[in-house]
């Protein structure tokens, strides 16, 4: 027995009974749904294999870096079960207005808007207990029913893994410019990052590059290097799989605190090693997506 | 418009067309499937809201602690997109035998067996690009088609979040004894841990307790405390939500390395602060599930 074969059977069993009166087949997993029509020049996905590697941190700082270059930027948080971007931007109490059946995104600056599941929940502790088809419907609505306006970039922060959320946005979003893969140097994280690279390639999307986060740490007391997650794993994976390496960001308690306190780190302009590292990664990324 | 209402509509549209010739309705999200029949006294789920908080580390060490108490233990890795338990146990090259249509789990010791998606993949870098219904089928097979033998405990390591995997195992597994919630002290992680608590309570399962992982760190060079993810967030959440607090495990480069090198940390019996902390958490948990 191959488990895969049997699962294919069960999945088909669930989707093939679309009789003449069956409702919209657009959610059917087997057929590719048409891409949605939204006014955006470039959609960029931010992916990781493993959770907790700093995907949302990279997404937030990339969105701000692009906005600082004068672009109109949308930031879409697709981590439906654990949306963290509103908290990281200090926006967790915001609720979007609904104007003429369209949901107004939260405007962070004149040219940067954010949408997240967190804005639609009754409170910050309500779990979203949804199976895949519910999430597919929500993702479609985040694209079509949100009044993004004309965008240069839509930066999409995904939950870890290569499941419904990643597959849905890869199939629905127009003008996919590519994906950024975030990993820590830890072997278990790099292994999952490689899976993410292969997922992106299977979707016929370019890998814009790998960011190695939590890469080395200097003790804030004695300055010595603390080898917590190791170093260099992301860069080696980039070489092995022939994808660009965008740079390393050290593990820094200040950056962790910025996330908890709702202040994007890149806005702080403190001239520290960490700040220069993250600014360099973001400039590399902007240069790559604008090229 | 409330987005929730519209999504419910779309989901129903996908599931309600079960005509007379419709195949098995047991995957239907609206109806609860019957629990599977496997010979296990207690099923324990290990959950987190956020990824990368050490769920798999806790699952592995809990399974070993229970086995050390002479129990027959199964360890089921349900992180289908990013299975890390085989790597953490140095078993990533193992492939299960198939005997008489049943999959033989990998036997780690005489009374501890493991099953993971990783054992069924052609290589360690293949992504599993599956939507929810595929994962539901796989989880059912991991319960029914694996020759677990008579088990005292089945420890189930879940991916982050409250989606298909968590919901499926909560609905299918018999004798659910409760769930362990793992979090770091970081606010964004604690917020997601609270969602996990509320998910568990909605499934009418007890919360066995919260483990605070990556709780404080001592610099290995100067011994000073490095405040990386903060401290105490998990314990406060346990108080606020009136669930047991099982203890804190510090952030320790040695424990990270143990995971990368395939050696369960609890087996090392080094008399360090970290070892004593993890042993104490596991003893608290064993005492609670055996009571």
Task: Characterize this entry briefly.
Chain A is an alpha/beta fold. The first copy, chain A, is built from nine helices and twelve strands.
Number of helical segments with 4 or more residues of chain A: 9
* Quaternary organisation: homodimer
Low-pLDDT ranges of chain A: 1-29
The separation of the N and C termini of chain A measures 49 Å
Mean of residue pLDDT values of chain A: 88
Strand order in space, largest sheet of chain A: 5-6-2-7-1-8-9-12
Secondary-structure element string of chain A: HEHEHEEEEHEHEHEEEHEHH
Total strand count of chain A, please?
12
Largest sheet of chain A: 8 strands, mixed
Q: Describe the global form of chain A.
A: globular
- Rg calc of chain A: 19 Å
Q: Which protein chains make the most extensive interface, counting residues with beta carbons within 8 Å of the other chain's beta carbons?
A: A-B, 90 and 91 residues
**Backbone structural class of chain A:** alpha/beta
Q: Assign a percent range to the helix content of chain A.
A: 25-40%
Proportion in β-strands of chain A: 15-25%
What do you see in this structure?
The structure is a homodimer of 291-residue chains. By secondary structure, chain A is an alpha/beta fold. In chain A, 36% of the residues lie in helices and 20% in strands. Chain A contains nine helices and twelve strands. In chain A, the strands form three sheets. Chain A has an eight-stranded mixed beta sheet with strand order 5-6-2-7-1-8-9-12, sandwiched between helices. In chain A, strand 3 and strand 4 (102-103) form a beta hairpin. In chain A, helix 2 packs across helix 9 (273-290) and helix 4 runs parallel beside helix 5 (164-172). At the A-B interface, helix 1, helix 4, helix 5, helix 6 and helix 8 of A face helix 1, helix 4, helix 6 and helix 8 of B.
